[in-house]
Design brief:
Blueprint: H1 11-20, E1 25-31, E2 37-43, H2 44-54, E3 56-59, E4 86-91, E5 97-98, E6 105-113, H3 124-137, E7 140-153, H4 157-162, H5 180-184, H6 187-199, E8 204-209, E9 215-220, E10 223-224, H7 225-245, E11 249-251, E12 264-272, H8 290-302, H9 307-310, E13 332-334, E14 341-344, E15 351-354, H10 363-380, H11 405-414, H12 416-422, H13 424-443, H14 447-453
Parallel strand pairs: 1-6, 13-14
Antiparallel strand pairs: 1-2, 3-4, 4-6, 5-6, 7-9, 7-10, 7-11, 7-12, 8-9, 12-15, 14-15
Helix pairs in contact: 3-10, 6-7, 8-10, 11-13, 12-13
EC number: 6.3.1.2
GO molecular function, one term: ATP binding
Organism: Mycobacterium tuberculosis
Length: 457
């Protein structure tokens, strides 16, 4: 995959826009453990005069809370015992851009550091940066695309919340996969999302209906890994904001109902820092270079151990179902959508698509894991088995993905290669996050339990 990235908003242009009063607010944000944007809205003038170079503080608890922003025990980097001190959001000015759907607003993605300037090692963006540094040391660059699916509902978010997210009306009444007519009902919203993202520097390619009712996928052009992951965060947050402006809501959760879930397929390709196509070899099996074959072999060998990075919530695992287009088998194939890893493209565009992640994934962690797994294969010269031909769901002798968050957490904890790639502090931090999620779910009384037990048990 080759092509230019999206240009940022130039610093001199921001200065001009702030001076003219056209930009009065700059959002400084980072992505938390759950993949959400967190940060502050800063006066445009204050950002230009001070914050752009100095950074701005935020509480360290933001990387040590559950989904509800409740403080929870078990995190070494932030707790009541440490006093929940500050981290510093340091703007990465290469990510500066306008946010067209929020008047007078620009946004910049920040890296997290401590007061002494050392990195916050458990920050998702920092975790990915370290894997990209490993690639750079080998003269390699990763190009990545993420494909998020979502379901649109006719009710706005506050109404959806007030109803406990029950009884919502999807924006279509039937399967709308590739359907032009049924998707036209959503087109005013979808168009505003597309145009908004284009104005924010993302390169829109296509939108299509998906299998579930009200389900859509908007595709954006690949870019270098860090750029794509930053764009992913902006898109996911912005799509919700734009839906709310339309009086609608949308969800990226991996499994909203018993029908098809929301995926986030991730495409990865490597190239040399000189632009050379290191994955392509016209004389190799299936047009794959030996490096590419080892890269895919490494991903395949490490899928189970890294599943926690691809499927981080209880709900993630309900998406893994046979004959659902979500994978269950540890298999790779050539343009085979029943496999966890699907090799697609030809020549310099050849790449591997990981079909494991759902829409609830933290993209930085998932891409970091895919690169770490691929490097594991390259460094050891792993041999790629023959591709799966036919239905991977029916392979009796094929190893399977873990089926619960608890299983994935054990595999993550026990993996020497995960600890080697990510470090002990990162492993401990994200294991605690999984345990917090498990404890919260185990304490909850669900509608399923009430329906089964209220009268009949």
């Amino acid at each position: 995959m080759t092509g230019p990235g999206s240009p940022p908003l130039a610093w001199t242009e921001l200065e001009r826009l702030v001076a003219a009063g056209d930009v009065d607010t700059v959002i400084v944000a980072f992505t938390d453990m759950q993949g959400r944007l967190a940060g502050k809205r800063i006066s445009g003038r204050h950002f230009v005069d001070d914050i752009a170079t100095r950074g701005v503080e935020c509480c360290s608890y933001l990387l040590a809370v559950d989904v509800d922003l409740n403080t929870v025990p078990g995190y070494a980097m932030a707790s009541w015992d440490t006093g929940y001190g500050d981290m510093v959001m340091t703007p990465d000015l290469s990510t500066l851009r306008l946010i067209p759907w929020l008047p007078g607003t620009a946004l910049v993605i920040a890296d997290l550091v401590w007061a002494d300037g050392s990195e916050v090692a458990v920050s998702p963006r920092s975790i990915l940066r370290r894997q990209l540094d490993r690639l750079k040391a080998r003269g390699l660059v990763a190009d990545v695309a993420t494909e998020l699916e979502f379901i649109v509902f006719d009710q706005p978010y506050r109404q959806a919340w007030a109803s406990g997210y029950r009884g919502l009306t999807p924006a279509s009444d039937y399967n709308i996969d590739y359907a032009i007519l049924a998707s036209s009902r959503m087109e005013p919203l979808l168009r505003d999302i597309r145009l908004g993202m284009a104005g924010a520097g993302l390169r829109f390619e296509a939108v299509k209906g998906e299998c579930n009712m009200g389900q859509q996928e908007i595709g954006f052009r690949y870019d270098e890994a860090l750029v794509t992951c930053d764009n992913h965060a902006i898109y996911k947050n912005g799509a919700k904001e734009i839906a709310d402006q339309h009086g609608k809501s949308l969800t990226f959760m991996a499994k909203y109902d018993e029908r098809e879930g929301n995926s986030c397929h991730i495409h990865v390709s490597l190239r040399g820092t000189d632009g050379s196509a290191v994955f392509a070899d016209s004389n190799g099996p299936h047009g794959m270079s030996s490096m590419f074959r080892s890269f895919v072999a490494g991903q395949l060998a490490t899928l189970r151990e890294f599943t926690l990075c691809y499927a981080p919530t209880i709900n993630s695992y309900k998406r893994f179902a046979d004959s659902s287009f979500a994978p269950t088998a540890l298999a790779w194939g050539l343009d085979n959508r029943t496999c966890a890893l699907r090799v697609v493209g030809h020549g310099q565009n050849i790449r591997v698509e990981c079909r494991v992640p759902g829409g609830d994934v933290n993209q930085y962690l998932a891409v970091a894991a895919l690169i770490a797994g691929g490097l594991y294969g390259i460094e050891r010269g792993l041999q790629l088995p023959e591709p799966c031909v036919g239905n991977a769901y029916q392979g009796a002798d094929v190893e399977r993905l873990p089926v619960t968050l608890a299983d994935a957490a054990v595999l993550f904890e026990d993996s020497a290669l995960v600890r080697e790639a990510f470090g002990e502090d990162v492993v401990a931090h994200y294991l605690n996050n999984a345990r917090v999620e498990l404890a919260a779910f185990n304490a909850a009384v669900t509608d399923w339990e009430r329906i089964r037990g209220f009268e009949r048990l």
